[in-house]
Amino acid sequence: xxxxxxxxxxxxxxxxxxxxxxxxxxxxxxxxxxxxxxxxxxxxxxxxxxxxxxxxxxxxxxxxxxxxxxxxxxxxxxxxxxxxxxxxxxxxxxxxxxxxxxxxxxxxxxxxxxxxxxxxxxxxxxxxxxxxxxxxxxxxxxxxxxxxxxxxxxxxxxxxxxxxxxxxxxxxxxxxxxxxxxxxxxxxxxxxxxxxxxxxxxxxxxxxxxxxxxxxxxxxxxxxxxxxxxxxxxxxxxxxxxxxxxxxxxxxxxxxxxxxxxxxxxxxxxxxxxxxxxxxxxxxxxxxxxxxxxxxxxxxxxxxxxxxxxxxxxxxxxxxxxxxxxxxxxxxxxxxxxxxxxxxxxxxxxxxxxxxxxxxxxxxxxxxxxxxxxxxxxxxxxxxxxxxxxxxxx
Length: 394
Fold this sequence. Notes:
about 40% helix, five-stranded antiparallel β-sheet, alpha+beta, elongated
């Protein structure tokens, strides 16, 4: 490595800081875990700098449904828009940084979106050791920059955040980041090519150079892969705006579902619209980047209950968080009964505790692609609709 220099100015002159390699790959890995700002979120999105939460280090990735981990991802982060961010670290002295690391990362990404249930993101984050005893929910609240609020409102905001994370994972809205002390030209060209051609996934590199001098260390991150062409692709895919708040209409939502989720997501959306109409319910559009569109059923007191939601990628949320406020589903046992019926359908897999504590579990589009499984899914909620509407005297 050429010994490039930067200079620190002090009262008695300039202190030369000489570029140096890291002693080991783990040194750079630990720096990222301790100081996520080294991912240079301000360079990735200058108009809306990315902020980070570390979900976990050494995330195990299976290559089959329910299988044991085959690979281990160096770091899994998530940003304030709930976009899962896969980070792989290599030193410039590692020959695999030229091309092999790209195939490795694509293996990780393909299998995470295929075989990780959305709730696993939250579980990994909450299970990560915290020597300072910090609350996982408090970390999310700080990331989102939310003001102090009543406990139930804060809990709702955190649940909604993890619902969005699961929706992003289900719809392949992820970010892949290669980190090294030096990004070679061969890897840079591949990253730029991928980022300019992948619509849903963002692919970037972060070069974190280290300079040492007079017992001091300076770290200088630089993002690689943001090009005008890649920005055009991402802007077009997001409807010309990256803002989280959006006022949808049904035609726009249908078009976004077709573009992002394809024919299977469109079929699921249309089946849901017919289903909710058949029960005298309504569809209610959310204001997020990916919707959702809620299927709201009438309750016994006439209030609409947003039982299900579908995002533009075709992921479906089961909204126990709303159901818990309406009899008979204010009983955790009743919600658990729904959950166990759902888990009897094909590839649907929802942790029972999500029903008991009234969260927002996501069902991946893949699990509802077969028409028979899709029909079985809505049959479960036929019973929910009937029981929601029954007057107390009956």
